[in-house]
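Example 3.2
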Amino acid sequence: MKVLMIEDDSEIVETVSLAFQIRWPDAKLVSTHLGQAGVELAESESPDIVILDLGLPDISGFDVLKQIRLFSSVPVLVLTVRSEEADIVKGLEWGADDYLVKPFRQLELLARVKALTRRKSPPGEDANLVYGPLRLNPSTRQLYYGDKEISLTCTEGHILHHLMRNAGHVVTHSSLAEAVWGEDYEGATDSLKVYIRRLREKIEADPSHPQFILARSGVGYLLTKPG
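Structure, written as tokens:
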């Protein structure tokens, strides 16, 4: 596997590189501290995943993300000190598949990378899921709401896949985090809130008054048929 890291902090690059050497020795890490060079490497190196900082010395990480999305659907994990919800939402809206705030735990980073680079669904889980007007292809993360086609990010696809497999039942924050990232880490519940909001904006007629994805305060989420 090839990882492209666009990060201007050499200590962060070294930390991530060491984590891969210990836990994922077959992975190859390519890095640059410049955003424009990162865009070029994303095209020439064909990485399996991009780890992107937002605070770069030449151009904004958001601009890097926007440029990459013009030619590639490679999974992009934003790794940044910017923790404001507005930045998280902007990153997801511009095409990021996941968003991790510094300081971070190495095992959490690797878990998220593995979740984003899963190429195939587990055996028996690659068939289309249908619930009410929703139809999801887990392999391509393509969602159909009736005749409407909706594109999902990798993380959104994993979340909806787990909710649809457990439709009609409350899915706890912990089980949903484990299904998406492989572990229930500190802060996962807050991250899920952002992704659930994005999913609601894509499938709900009125995201502020959801009919599909309902919250169960302090517990988790429930996928139900509207009405």
